[in-house]
Amino acid sequence: MTWIRDPRAEPPLAWHRIDGLDGYPEGATGVSLTEAVPLNALLVTVVGADGVVAQTTCAIKPGTPPPGADWAKAYCAAFTQITPPTK
Length: 87
Known about the structure:
The N and C termini lie far apart (30 Å). The strands form 2 sheets. A 4-stranded antiparallel beta sheet has the order 3-4-5-6, with no helix packed on it. Strands 1-2 form a two-stranded antiparallel ribbon. The protein has one helix at 70-75, and strands spanning 3-5, 15-17, 30-36, 41-47, 53-59, 80-81. It is 7% helix and 33% strand. By secondary structure, the protein is mainly β.
């Protein structure tokens, strides 16, 4: 499971799962978060157990964040595979 914390919401509603998004790699073994351009976005990179690397961008919009699984659907695109070549 991969969770994102949105500090605008009160706990426990501040935590949101993003592993339900389309394209999420199977058996995540690593996650990287980076501030993306524009600066109101979060770039999430996930490595799966089989070596697949996938990425999504979550654009944070103003206002009260939606609860639960709706957060990921409202703010994040589907994951896109970006696995580097092996040669």
